[in-house]
Write a structure and sequence with these properties.
Length: 367
């Protein structure tokens, strides 16, 4: 489906085959955009293939010469009596945004043109989560064709690494005295505990990730047994996660941090790389290993690895957990957005809230 605008040709890709055909272009575009894991081609396509209960609605903006200048990764899903457009990866903690070519003459115009096409399509947007500082949100708030409502939703802790040459230098920074003391105390305790060897590793290749999977799955099993959340390595999520990591490894976009005690994994962090950012996605800890402070061990290893890769930021994704905040340099607020054409926003909001209440009731009564 094509739409000609003043500058770009806007297409809406509605099949997995169409989306798969732009995977390489999408991956290249992501190298110049700092976005969340589900906005990356390997992860998004795996999600659309294995998890999506609607259909793709991935928007692309191309120059007249065919150059891909922007992508808006959405999918269409039935909600009550109608449909809504959501981020690809809805329900798996994505922070969404548009991807725009770094050489776009007017990056805001790329997003504006995609928003104008969305307004003409008349399908409302229900987007969770959107960073307040994102280009997409800024342009949405200025759209002449769409009304929106934005409710505060979550917090994203961020670790800034620009100009930092080592994890020791990072820990010596202002405001990190308590974290520095905690890590020194942890190191002394580990050194005194001669009966257990605690190690960390970072793997990035398809073969190394495949070899690590049994250990990751075992940690995930133990974590879910203690605190059921969402298991990414069992059921339908397993096929999605394995494909996402495998394809991302082929394009050098994934890093898996593992903490092991006496050679046995006790914690892991799956992260993806976009632009100059390492974006955390799934972290799980063996409840029996909490005395080892595996969350801190993982983040220290992630910081050192990111510095070595000359990345500028670690995005810890949604959730203001205490250990995340101790490591973070700053936080970013996200919003849940509902947007629609003029005159229909209020009934759309009512419908969305009603369906969400019904869903929450079902979850509470089937747990």
């Amino acid at each position: 489906m094509g739409h000609e605008t003043a500058v770009h040709e806007i297409d809406v890709l509605t099949s997995l085959a169409e989306v798969g055909a732009i995977a390489d272009e999408w991956t290249e575009l992501a190298r110049h955009n700092d976005v969340g894991p589900l906005m990356l081609a390997p992860v998004a396509i795996a999600w659309l293939r294995h998890v999506c209960k609607g259909q793709p609605h991935v928007m692309t903006a191309r120059r007249r010469d065919g150059t891909l200048m922007g992508i808006l990764p959405l999918h269409k899903r039935r909600l009550g009596p109608g449909h809504v457009l959501r981020w690809v990866g809805h329900g798996m903690g994505p922070t969404g945004d548009a991807l725009v070519h770094p050489r776009a003459s007017d990056p805001d115009a790329v997003v504006d043109e995609m928003l104008a096409v969305l307004a003409r399509e008349r399908t409302p947007l229900q987007l969770v989560d959107v960073a307040r500082s994102s280009r997409f949100f800024r342009r949405l708030t200025r759209s002449p064709d769409l009304h929106y409502a934005a409710d505060a939703h979550d917090t994203v802790p961020l670790i800034d690494l620009a100009g930092v040459s080592s994890v020791e230098e990072f820990l010596s920074g202002a405001g990190r005295r308590k974290l520095r003391q905690n890590m020194a105390r942890l190191d002394r305790a580990m050194a005194a505990n001669a009966g257990h060897a605690v190690t960390t590793s970072v793997v990035t290749s398809p073969d190394a990730i495949a070899a690590a999977l049994p250990g990751l799955t075992a940690v995930h099993d133990r974590s879910e047994a203690r605190q059921p959340r969402q298991h990414f390595l069992r059921g339908v999520n397993r096929a999605f996660t394995i494909e996402a990591m495998d394809r991302a490894a082929e394009s050098d976009q994934v890093a898996v941090v593992t903490v092991a005690s006496d050679g046995e994994p006790v914690a892991f962090l799956i992260s993806f790389i976009s632009g100059r950012t390492l974006a955390a996605w799934v972290a799980r800890i063996d409840p029996a290993a909490l005395e080892l402070a595996p969350g801190h061990q993982m983040l220290r290893a992630a910081v050192q690895w990111a510095i070595e890769r000359r990345l500028r930021c670690i995005d810890l994704q949604l959730g203001a957990d205490a250990y995340k905040l101790r490591w973070s340099s700053r936080t970013e607020e996200t919003v849940a957005v509902v947007a629609a054409r003029h005159g229909i926003l209020a009934p759309i909001q009512t419908s969305v809230r009603l369906v969400e209440r019904v869903y929450a009731w079902r979850v509470d009564h089937t747990a």
